[in-house]
Amino acid sequence: MTTRCKYDTTNILVVGTGGQGVMTATEILAEAAIALGHDAKKTEVAGMAQRGGVVSSHLRFGQKVLSPQISPGTADVLLGFEAAEAMRWRHMLRPDGLVLMNTGRLVPPIVELGLYDYPDDPVAEVRAAGTHVVSFDASAIALELGEIRLGNTVMLGAIADHLPFPAEVLEQCVLQRFAHKKPEIVDMNRRAFAAGRAAAAEALRAAPDAA
């Protein structure tokens, strides 16, 4: 089943930790929206991003967008590159919003510093709040494909069927990023995108809160 945003302006919040490609993923999503004629605005907040700190990136696109900032309770999709970060940002979702969550565990430094207790089961906690969750291990998929950095492409594949435009438009923007690289790099990202799309579709079918 494919889920599409039904609002005039699409609000996507991407969260994770430094080094996971959160900002790059948001840039690619914005490029896809702009390629189809949308007005797009984005903003990022990075806390020690290069050291693995928490990162969040807001993206809004539609016919006319005045501000990049997503207000609490208005995000259509929360794309969580890290499970606990997705849980921490759940309040940003619409009541009928969707969380796409990577279950691969990457503990942020704020946990190691004792500023935050890592939850035992972030997915269960988000579901317990009544939120629609699609979860799968994007990190494991990336490693199976031979490169952990493919995780952001896997996650872009996961969101591809939950946007108000064809998945192929987003895929083309992803691959364009690597057009100057060796052909095998382009192919790895093509496979990562397809794997993320398939994993999200399977997780959606299996989710206990599936509509």
UniProtKB/TrEMBL annotation:
GO terms for molecular function: pyruvate synthase activity. The keyword Ribonucleoprotein does not apply. It is an enzyme of class 1 (oxidoreductase). Signal peptide: none annotated. It comes from the Bacteria. Its EC number is 1.2.7.1. It holds the Pfam family POR. Gene3D superfamilies: Pyruvate-ferredoxin oxidoreductase, PFOR, domain III. Residues 18-197 form the Pyruvate/ketoisovalerate oxidoreductase catalytic domain. Keywords: Oxidoreductase, Pyruvate. The keyword Oxidoreductase applies. This is Pyruvate synthase subunit PorC. It comes from Candidatus Accumulibacter adjunctus.
